[in-house]
Amino acid sequence: MKLLVTGGAGFIGSAVVRHAVGQGHELVNLDALTYAACLDNVAAVADSPLYAFELADIRDRSALDRVFQQHAPEAVIHLAAESHVDRSIDGPGDFVETNITGTYNLLEAARSHWEGQGRPEGFRFHHVSTDEVYGSLGPTGKFTEETPYDPRSPYSASKASSDHLVRAWHETYGLPVVLTNCSNNYGPYHFPEKLIPVVILNALAGKDLPIYGDGSNVRDWLFVEDHADALLTVLTKGPVGRSYNIGGENELSNLALVRTLCGVLDELRPRESGSYADQITFVADRPGHDARYAIDPTRIREELGWRPSVTVEEGLRRTVQWYLDNESWWRALLDRKGVGQRLGTGMA
Ligand code: NAD
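Above: the input record for the complex with nicotinamide-adenine-dinucleotide. Below: its predicted structure, written as tokens.
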């Protein structure tokens, strides 16, 4: 298949790019290279004859039309987005422009291309979204694909809006779409503003390990390589119009997660004395911090036969080892705007 992947220089997009090229797909990576991007993430495939890169912004419709015309993709996997909840609290405008208007532009460019090609049945527009659109759970229950949307942060509201647009383009214009809503990803190439890389890098630097609130917020953790595999499974096997939740089957509170990371670090790179857990500190909570997310993975498991391949313990060990082995990758990102600062307190 000839794929157009948006956001392929980001964390998850680059995993999709590496995985898809590895599977023999021809691929165009479209990315505006924002603060969150890093082309080193796709260095492993950059010289492949299957791979091309297009510097373009999804807010620019004419740039999108040119890319569709030039590359004539058979499917789109749309991951380009502003992705950090804390940044969405300080500056929601970028989230509305990229995640909502940008997705609208991409849908229109894809529709125009698809109609121009005679509406091929095999075409797919795959929208990659988040479980955060469903809001917050109490101590029990899980999100299914039928859970009503109840987004609560500017980020999740912008993703919910884009999900609705994608469904509407299917219902109204017949565009062949599939959607996925996944839980929190982690793994190699995770930008150092998100919890897991922040904890690993602060631990190594002897700094505090900040935990929002009391650390009781629960997330389901999905290894990014598993997510990339799930996305290609849904793209190639999912029926048109269907949406799938993707989870790691690994629920952990933030405090338990950070303690597990400290345990792995204690083993792989022991401190001179004591444990990395001694560096844990509790900081003011994120405004509107959702208490718990949990995914019911029944649909993707039963319909497409997909399950995650690693446990969170295994995935975290691989992730810590990757950061220990790839210092030049993360060190180069530490001076990007906002990295290392507390964002999203609602006080900006
Ligand atoms: P990321 O921030 O690491 O990467 C986003 C990429 O999109 C970057 O390469 C950036 O340059 C690009 N981009 C941003 N704005 C753009 C624009 N206007 N035009 C073109 N490119 C643009 O994000 P990620 O964590 O890899 O997330 C990818 C997708 O998966 C997002 O849509 C996000 O909402 C979704 N998602 C992420 C998670 C997670 O845990 N990270 C969970 C669920 C869903």
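Notes for the reader.
The two ends are 45 Å apart (CA to CA).
The longest strand covers residues 124-130.
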